[in-house]
Structures are given as C-alpha cells and as structure tokens.
Design brief:
This protein is α/β, with parallel strands linked by helices. Helices cover 39% and strands 14% of the residues. The chain has a seven-stranded mixed β-sheet with strand order 1-3-2-4-5-6-7, with helices on both faces. 37% of the residues are buried.
C-alpha cells in the first residue's frame, strides 16, 4: 500500500513537472550575472611520465552539457604516450566554471583566448561539438595562439540543433524540479535519476553522460534539491540551445586559418554533412571518418587517441 501510494505520488509529481516545463513563463529562474569574460576552470591530465615542456600543450574543449572530465581517460593516455601537457577546459556554465550570461560562441571564444594568452605560448586546440565551434573561432580570430586545430564532429555553419538536445535539457530540468528525488538515498539516487530521464532520452549512454553533470551531495543524508553543474533552468527558459546552432560568420568574414587542421567526423552523425563549408576558413585540412555517430571520443577511444597522437606529433 505504501509503495503504491509512493508510485502514485511520483507519477502525479512527474505530470505536474512536465506541464511546468511546457509553460516556460511559469518557471521561476534566478537571473545569472552578465560577464563579458571569465576565468575558465582547467585541469591538466596527470600522466606517469615526465612532461616535455619543449612541446606545445594540447588544450581540449568539451561539447554541450560536457565538462573537462569527459576527456580525462583519453587525455591521460595522450599525455603519457607523447610526454606532452594535455589540458581540459570547462566553458562558461559548464563543469567548474562560473554560471553567467551570455552563453554564446563569441564569449566562450573570448574566455578561451584569455586562457591561452595566460599559458604564454601557442597550443594545439581541440574541441567537440560546441567546443569545436569555439576552437574554430579562436583559431580564426587569434591564429597566433593556435599551432594546430582539431575539429571533432562539427562544422563552421549555422544549423539548428536536433530537438533531442532540448529533450535532454528538459530531462535535467525535470530532475532539478522533482522534490521526490531529494528524498532518495544517495546510493539509489543515480538509479532514480536515470529512471526519470528515460521519459526524455532513450539512449542509456547519453543518460549516463547527462547524469555526470549532477553536483555531488554533501552526505548520504543530504536532502537539498538536486542540482546540476549546468544552469539547466536558465538554459531552457532563455532559449540558450538556439544559440548553440549558430555560427557567427560576420565575426570571421574574410579570415582563414592556414595552419594544419584535423577534422574527425562521425560518419553516422549529422554535424558534418558537407566538407566544402570548411574551404572558406581552412587551408590545410585532413579528414578522418569514424564508423560511428556523434559520440566518437567515447565510442572509439582507441582510434581517437591514435589519430590525435599521429596529428599532434607530426
């Protein structure tokens, strides 16, 4: 009887939350501060071999809803095999970086430019999806900071994101609004969060990726509301995902990056439908196709590491 009442309550709460998410005007969302530039959080992936500081560092930028820890495994492997410093960055509103407005490609590029200048030497810059557009912008606007560029499955064009990204965002918003989840014991929390997300995202690998954004709970008895490292409610209410399909062509009109570029393309992904669009901006580009979808770093990590090493060590 108790279990039945709990399940009935959970279903009622779920229906109420779904209605709230459809009526964006009803959502109470705290405003974020406006910051033209922030100090992005960073992490150097540790390796058991000494770093050769005569080599330029590899700086890696995650995709939408990602964070620097997404590259931890491949980053450590590349660092170990090349004796090179490998660094992951958190873009604004992701990972350990500040939650601020605006969230667009120009401001993420400015944040990244500042970080690279603080390094004091050029870097090899790599980015995936959102991070790929940031990396391309930085290379085009400040080529003196980028020795080589790696574009992971995205194109320098404006193209609307698949509606599934909005569903994934709604999944995280639902979790944040669900007061029942705050009562779940820590050991069962991820299981219950995954169960809620199944209504929005059918791919278990993507759900695991989204769940990795959960902020850690202070203790097993913590009953504070669930929260994420991404300001998901602000992203939903203010249409941030629409900006993630954009490409600020006017900012880079007439610019061309003449140094080596590696394009890693998921053959079953929709993000690089036409290679000709790269000709406007890049002169020396090498393309490697992957027999997988968009998540090629996690789906083909060994090939990814091998291709990266071949390119950066050449």
């Amino acid at each position: 009887m108790i279990i039945a009442r709990f399940l009935h309550s959970s279903r009622r709460v779920a229906l109420d939350i779904k209605q709230q998410l459809l009526d964006l005007n009803s959502l109470h969302v705290e405003s974020l501060p406006f910051r033209k530039i922030i100090d992005v959080a960073s992490q150097t992936y540790k390796s058991p071999v000494p770093t050769d500081h005569s080599k330029l560092p590899l700086v890696m930028i995650h995709g939408l809803f990602g964070a620097k820890q997404n590259y931890a495994m491949v980053g450590r492997t590349i660092a170990e095999k090349t004796s090179r410093q490998v660094i992951g960055l958190d873009m604004r509103n992701h990972g350990g970086s500040d939650h601020v407005l605006p969230h667009d490609y120009i401001h993420m590029a400015i944040d990244t430019e500042q970080y690279l200048r603080q390094l004091g030497k050029p870097a090899i810059l790599a980015g995936h999806l959102m991070g790929a557009k940031v990396a391309m912008l930085v290379a085009l606007k400040w080529p003196e900071l980028v020795e080589k560029l790696v574009v992971i499955d995205n194109s320098p064009v404006a193209s609307a994101l698949d509606s599934q990204f909005t569903q994934d965002l709604r999944a995280m918003c639902h979790v944040k609004l669900d007061s029942e989840l705050a009562k779940v014991k820590l050991k069962n929390l991820r299981i219950e969060v995954d169960r809620v997300m199944q209504d929005y995202e059918k791919d278990p690998m993507v759900r695991l990726f989204l769940i990795s954004n959960l902020k850690p709970r202070a203790s097993s008895t913590d009953t504070l509301p669930i929260d994420f490292r991404v300001p998901v409610m602000s992203f939903l209410k203010y249409g941030v995902l629409e900006k993630m399909g954009e490409w600020p062509a006017t900012e880079v009109q007439g610019l061309k990056f003449e140094k080596p570029v590696l394009l890693l393309r998921g053959f079953h992904s929709p993000f690089v439908p036409d290679l000709k669009v790269f000709d406007e901006y890049f002169q020396d580009i090498h393309v490697v196709n992957y027999d997988c979808g968009h998540w090629l770093v996690s789906e083909r990590p060994k090939k990814f590491v091998a291709d990266m090493i071949e390119f950066i060590e050449d």
